[in-house]
């Protein structure tokens, strides 16, 4: 059976390279890796509203899914970020009914928005973690706690640095480390994808 890694939601920040999108940062429950996933504005809002326990005037799509599932005695057992192909993540929602267990294909953003509504656990396949996650060391954690009130990391640098395709693998690894230290997970994810293309 495929090894799964349990994740928790660490944060949500606006994505400066793609307007209208956000970076959802997931962290290993028992480990130091972080998994940044770029998601749409609607899904980011749906996740944030549930985490903050804000009740919208009318049910949103994911609330409707919860009401529908509960009406038919379906529970969400867990969600699994199961695969990654060409930089696109895939997920499965594991549902349990009175007499059946069903696995539903989903985008990770929708699956996570549903998971928070059911207090369901979130997992990621180890193969996806080893390909897409970013290692977060004890030093990074110390830096993070020191920099809690730090200004927004400089985005100007990324424009000066040119296209990631122009850099050597060594330089990309240096840039990845720098992006992680600056908590610029969006840039780190782009650098990680460029490194993965070359491996």
Outline the structure in words.
There is one protein chain. The protein has 199 residues and is α+β, with helices and mostly antiparallel strands. The protein has 2 domains: 4-132, Bifunctional nuclease domain (Roll); 140-198, no CATH class. The chain is built from 8 helices and 8 strands, in the order E-E-E-H-H-E-E-E-H-E-H-E-H-H-H-H. It has an 8-stranded mixed beta sheet with strand order 6-5-4-7-1-2-3-8. Strand 5 (88-96) and strand 6 form a beta hairpin. The protein is globular. 33% of the residues are buried.
Q: Write down the CATH topology of the largest domain.
A: Bifunctional nuclease domain
Radius of gyration: 18 Å
**Mean of residue pLDDT values:** 82
Class derived from helix and strand content: alpha+beta
Number of helices: 8
N-to-C terminal Cα separation, in Å?
Answer: 26 Å
Q: Beta-strand level of the residues, as a percent range?
A: 25-35%
């Amino acid at each position: 059976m495929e090894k799964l890694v349990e994740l928790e939601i660490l944060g949500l920040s606006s994505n400066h390279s793609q307007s209208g999108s956000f970076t959802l940062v997931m962290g290993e429950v028992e480990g130091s890796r972080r998994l940044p996933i770029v998601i749409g504005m609607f899904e980011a809002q749906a996740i944030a509203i549930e985490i903050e326990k804000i009740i919208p005037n009318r049910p949103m799509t994911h609330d409707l899914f919860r009401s529908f599932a509960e009406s038919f005695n379906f529970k969400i057992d867990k969600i699994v970020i199961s695969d990654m192909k060409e930089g696109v993540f895939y997920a499965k929602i594991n549902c349990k009914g009175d007499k059946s267990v069903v696995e539903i294909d989903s985008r990770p953003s929708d699956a996570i928005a549903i998971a928070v509504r059911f207090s369901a656990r979130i997992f990621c396949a180890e193969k996806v973690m080893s390909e897409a996650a970013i290692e977060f060391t004890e030093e990074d954690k110390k830096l993070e706690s020191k920099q809690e009130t730090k200004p927004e990391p400089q985005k100007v640098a990324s424009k000066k640095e040119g296209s990631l395709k122009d850099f050597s693998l060594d330089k990309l690894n240096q840039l990845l480390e720098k992006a992680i230290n600056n908590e610029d997970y969006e840039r780190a994810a782009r650098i990680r994808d460029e490194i993965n293309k070359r491996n």
